[in-house]
Amino acid sequence: MRSFDFAPLHRATIGFDQIADMMDRVLTNDVAQPSYPPYNIEKTDADTYRISVAVAGFSENDLSVEMKENSLLVAGKKAAEDKDRSYLHRGIATRAFERRFALADHVRVTGASHENGMLHIDLKREVPEALKPRRIEISSSKAIEKDVVDAKAVN
């Protein structure tokens, strides 16, 4: 029994809702995660990533990649096959699938390609200028004193 109450976290923090929701989703997910199709996630540079999904037997027309809010949805649905075919062994799975990836803020899809049975999705994190760290110039106390206007006592 793994049941955690995140109510105190919601009461004590502001702006961390996504982290608490993600932890809640991960810890309360009792259903086994699907392992089809297999995939890799690699970090190709400081702010770029690539998701590679093994989609043997699927063409570009059978696959779809959608980004909605902070979620990436990769789905595949094979067109109807000939009923005339008779398989002695069928080891290549071409069943429909849907795989979701949670994306961090400011991560966007830059492209997708399909080659040699692999679907490659390229991602890039683009932090806006307003959120990047900036250097604040520190002035000396002499410069501040020059700007002060001398005031005379009225009384």
Main β-sheet, spatial strand arrangement: 1-2-7-6
Distance from N terminus to C terminus (CA atoms, Å) equals 78 Å
Structure annotation, total helices: 3
Instruction: Tell me the overall shape.
Output: elongated
Average pLDDT metric: 79
Give me the secondary-structure category: alpha+beta
Poorly predicted residue ranges: none
Sheet with most strands: 4 strands, antiparallel
Count of β-strands: 7
Q: Write the element-wise H/E pattern from the N-terminal end onward.
A: HHEEEEEEEH
What percentage of residues falls in helices of 4 or more residues?
10-25%
> How much β-strand is present in the residues?
25-35%
The whole-angstrom Rg is: 27 Å
Pick out its properties:
155 residues, alpha+beta, three-stranded antiparallel sheet, 3 helices, ACD_IbpA/B, HSP20-like_chaperone, Hsp20 family protein
Report on the structure:
It is a single chain. The chain is α+β, with helices and mostly antiparallel strands. It is built from 3 helices and 7 strands. A 4-stranded antiparallel beta sheet has the order 1-2-7-6, with no helix packed on it. Strands 3-4-5 form a 3-stranded antiparallel beta sheet, with no helix packed on it. It starts with 6 loop residues before the first helix and ends in a 9-residue tail after the last helix. Residues 30-141 form the SHSP domain.
